Amino acid sequence: MYELNEMLHLKKHDKITNPGDYIVLKGYMACKTAKQLVYFAKQGDTILVMDNFCGEMLEFEAKTEVLLVKMPKEEPFMLARRKDDLQLKLIEALIERVQFFSIPAKERMYVLLCQVGKEIGIQAGDDCYIPSVMTQREMGAYISCTREYLCVMRKNLIEEGWLGEGRGWKLLNWERWNQQWGEVIAESVPVQITQL
Known about the structure:
The protein has about 200 residues and is of the alpha+beta class. It has seven helices and ten strands.
């Protein structure tokens, strides 16, 4: 059982400053590097905040109110194994993020929406709803386009039947999104990362 002093409450935009392993109990966290999105973490996900050189380049920012619990100390072998797994996930996400910028802006928008849908999307029927965790300005920065271009792309996606009308991001026919855009980056990454 976790003790209450191991709980961490974050307000929107707060960042985790203490190294350690955490479990997200409530809310959404964005892992970023150089103000670029690496991935989102949601309830039930484990995040690793490192204190080495790599850790200084990453930040975990609360995108909503967040409740975290710090993982208790484990046996050294188990802790090393779990850290290796989390670091492998992070390296793969960083490689995909670099590859992301080799595709055109319109495709980057599709891929980003698909990534966020997979990581934190809420499926309802055939569709996937993305929680309000990104402003248009942030999304434009993640895709590397202007806010105006983002609005034009959004309008086109609605007209083409990829997005639902109205506020927010409702990805229509989630299975189609996954088939078309779910593996675009993974397929273009030629190197398979393996654990040592």
